[in-house]
Design goal:
The structure is a single chain. The chain is mainly alpha-helical. It is built from 26 helices and eight strands. The radius of gyration is 24 Å and the shape is globular. The longest helix is centred in the middle third of the chain and has 34 residues. About 50% of the residues are buried.
Amino acid sequence: MKSLVSTLALVAATLTAPAALAAAPTTAAPSAATPATVDAWLAQADKAYADQTVTSGRAEWVYETYITDDTAQITADAGATMSKLQVAQAKQAAEFAKVPGLSPETLRKLTMIRTQITSPAPSTPGAAEEFAALQARIQGLYGKGHGTLRGQPINGSDIEEAMATDRNPDELKEMWLSWHDSVGTPMKADYAKMVEIANAGARELGYPDTGALWRANYDMTPDQFAAMTEKVWGEVRPLYQQLHCYVRGKLNAKYGDAVQPNKGPIRADLLGNMWAQEWGGIYDVVAPQGAGDIGYDLTGLLKDKGYDPLKMVKTGEGFYTSLGFQPLPATFWQRSQFTKPRDRDVVCHASAWDLDNVDDLRIKMCIKVDASDFVTIHHELGHNFYQRAYNQQPSRWYMEGANDGFHEAIGDTMALSITPDYLVKLGLLDPSKVPGPDKDIGLLLRQAMDKVAFLPFGLLIDRWRWGVFSGQIAPADYEKAWNEMRLSYQGVVPPGPRGADAFDPGAKYHVPAGVPYTRYFLARILQFQFYEAACKEAGWKGPLHRCSFYGNPKVGAKLDAMLKMGASKPWPDALQVFTGTREMSGGAMLRYFAPLTAWLKKQNAGADCGW
């Protein structure tokens, strides 16, 4: 997976990894360089980068599967070396991009090298160190953040859990306000200073600001990318509005007009999530009587059939091999972490790894026998099969997803395929117990509460930051612009007044961490395009949401053709190979949720569906 390089890591690299300079080949200034010079440098830089991805990946694997002070230092050193290398290469790439006569492929590689760095620092003495200190401070504020519940301190992860289950509006309001006040507000001034430093670094790399740099890695101009994502949002917005309208009505029925009126925006803390980004936590509040369940309990089926973690992974692999993909290598089964060890601390967050850029594929999980992890396994293996498919690409920079939304979308596509039809073929679900159409609304509403509800949030995080980076949003207006954007896109409002000194964006991890977010919006859209394309190739005739293409090698062959491309061509080329279109579109998502949309419109009849 592509590294997310910040200047915090760069400073650590400066202090601990002088050897990186030797791995970051440089050459003459643009005035003395030729296209041949640039291509020779790219070949050398490519090898240096590929070699370091292996070293850094192995160090990170050891740390995450065996957490000690020593392994922490080893992975920090390796990560610092990688950061130093990438920054040095990006600076050189920015200079070489000025050389006349470069081929389109060379220019594209130079862009890829520059846009790997999400928080660049300028060469001004002390700038990188200042940025690192600021970022360390605000990430520390986030990591140590807390709120209160009934007047007692509560940490962030416990607030997340509580907000999904607590139905007391006063307690929800207390947790929401206390978290945002204690985490976001204190970091506002530091964040504004970081924006200045990062923008200066982006300008040295050839971009007007950091937001433009982020948008430049999509094989189109930054303005074209912004317009494209806004167009896609416009396609799916009517579906979101219907969901918003229905959920608001259910919240009004539960809490009354004093807490949640039946018109206008929704109070953000009532949606089961600290950021109102996914609403699945309140499914019990909105589930329609008689149509609220999906007709079977996947967790119970897995346990009844004697599944253990290894059998769950084998089943996931079987999904891909049924499409014609080769089985995972023996080393996958020898080296992966499937369950939490009893003798040491590990990182349990599920992830997929390619340790040698060839076929040392692994997953790292602490698998429980339940429906959630069964879905996650299918998702993570999607990364592994994608990694192996593009391992023949001649450049390490091409050994990535076609854009940063593709990798997540592939795994999510497979997760969408865990349908009753698939479960019957596995022998998990008795054919006589396949739920009828009367259960479809429950299935689709559950899906929509996460996948559809997320869309505007997935877009606005970066929309706000783009405005901040460009200077259109001044520090004095950070909070005002944030709340206006949340109201415009999501139709949500804070549960209480927010002063100009507040900094609610900082209460979302990706903001202090400097991690771009639009990729998650892209993944939500692309997964439905991929899924619909696979179902069409398989000749599926029923409702789209019930399709499974398990066991169809024609689908696998077409999918493999796209996966093998990696990032070697502009992402529309890859999209066209599998879906037949070069346009990213919300149409497939709308067709998937069409039965739910019709049902929601009936439920919302007579309601004022807007905010």
